[in-house]
Predict the 3D structure of the following.
Amino acid sequence: MNRKYRKTVIAGNWKMNMLPSEVKPYADTLRALAGKTKHCEVVICAPFVMLPQLIKALRDCRIAVGAQNVSDKDSGAYTGEVSANQLRDLGVKYVIIGHSERRSYFGETDEMVRAKVTAAIGAGLIPIICVGETLEQREMGVTKDLISMQVKLALSAVPPEKMRRVIFAYEPVWAIGTGKTASAEEAGEVCSHIRAIIRSLYGARIARAVTIQYGGSMNKDNAAQLLSMPDIDGGLIGGASLDPEHFAAIIEAANQ
């Protein structure tokens, strides 16, 4: 982490877990454990059906709320979709875009990710843009080439003045939900590469201000080591965020 230039962000991604009735007990426990964050911003990204309850439950604390997906359309006949303006009006601050599960299960392409990033920024949301490689791609030695393409396409319509409202999350696909984790050095190397790509596009001043998270099975046991890397500025936390005590432990590691 480098707090001199950029903020640390710990974001929980509940995925398709939890129930609306479980939101308030979870929020009450988390507020008691981690409500007074000192050095990092905390976000919980929940399914659409839980966002109103979560916003209400966290209204009086410094924990922000994020969505897990967003449409690239502003409005219209798109049954089942949710627009960036609707999320913003509800009180959502962040949105995950391009998660590997959206890419692999629902066919989201880099072009779709770019369109969603544009829509999110246009509505005033902060996109958490996910990039990462599969195990096969890593073994082929194309990780950096693939990451470069994903980053460049995602940012192709983002002007320099909006880059402070962009977060990247490096999520090696082979380490998501598997219990496997990239070593701190491996994760740090790719996050440094992401920053180098941003530097080549926007210059050093903007690049050093962009928050880059690690999103591959970060937990209470490995968070401190991962966050010790200079270009890892937080985490996108999956399974560990479902337990408020485990999530609070990761937040505490980021506050050190």
About this structure: The chain has one domain: 8-255. The mean pLDDT is 94.
